[in-house]
Amino acid sequence: MTERPRTIIPGLGNLVGWFARGAKWYGAEWYITAAGAVILFVIIAVTILAPYIAPYDPTNFVGDPFIPPNSQFLMGTDKLGRDVFSRVVYGSQTIMMVAIFSALMSSAVGIPLGLLSGFAGGKLDRVLSLIMDSIYSFPGLILAIAMAAMLGPGIVNISIAIAVIYIPTYFRMVRGQVLSVKEDLYVEAARSLGADAFTILRVYVFPNVIPSVVVVFSLNISDAILTEAGLSFIGLGIPAPTPDWGFDVNAGRPYLPGGRWWLITFPGIMIAIVALGFSLLGEGLNEILNPRLREA
Length: 296
Fold this sequence. Notes:
Layout (H helix, E strand, L loop, with lengths): L11 H15 L1 H21 L1 H4 L30 H37 L1 H15 L3 H12 L3 H27 L3 H8 L4 H37 L11 H8 L9 H27 L2 H5 L1
Helix pairs in contact: 1-2, 2-4, 2-11, 4-5, 4-7, 4-9, 4-11, 5-7, 6-7, 7-9, 8-9, 9-10, 9-11, 10-11
């Protein structure tokens, strides 16, 4: 009797089959989502394992200044003799913390207000819509700069400054969804059966808003990463010597004409990769969770 071959990784066949079925069903959107998920998985792993990956303390002198990338310093050293690779690795913790924290705060405020405004309507809806439209009318980066200058440096303050500019995004998206869903027949049926407003919002309305929230949340983090890098670049972000990609790009900019390209190249690449990962994930989920896609 021939022995059945063993699977090297348990469940690998099922995983491959699941991925193939998803690719067949959704097409290119599935690969876009998967690419974004892989990028984010690697970045999150680097963020968590930073103390084990970085060979040096990112804030201490470890060699001569301006050493080009070599076998000892993979990304060279900066003007203070700090290891650029270690700063890039630890910088992922800073930028991810700010981006995720700001996205959580903006969603925690924008989603409930959008639910309440869209469901209640009337004067409350008009007042909240006017406030959100007023905030939304300001250019995002300009408003973030003003908030950051007022609150001062620090992870919490910068997260709040970034969160404020994205609250209207959640509000407008959720409000629009609620205005559409609350007129559906199953919501009217729930009302006729005596369900109170909170139960209707929690059981019948909010579950239909979740797919859009997931997409906006992913794109929100992508924008927040770029905004945080921009604030740090102009000196309104995380104070030195905390590793921060935007700050390091700005610190290395004066030395680029002298051929010290590595000072801004590696932090800049990481900003682009992480923002790209969240953007790919958000755009892919937007197509996958779109009900019209399934009807096509």
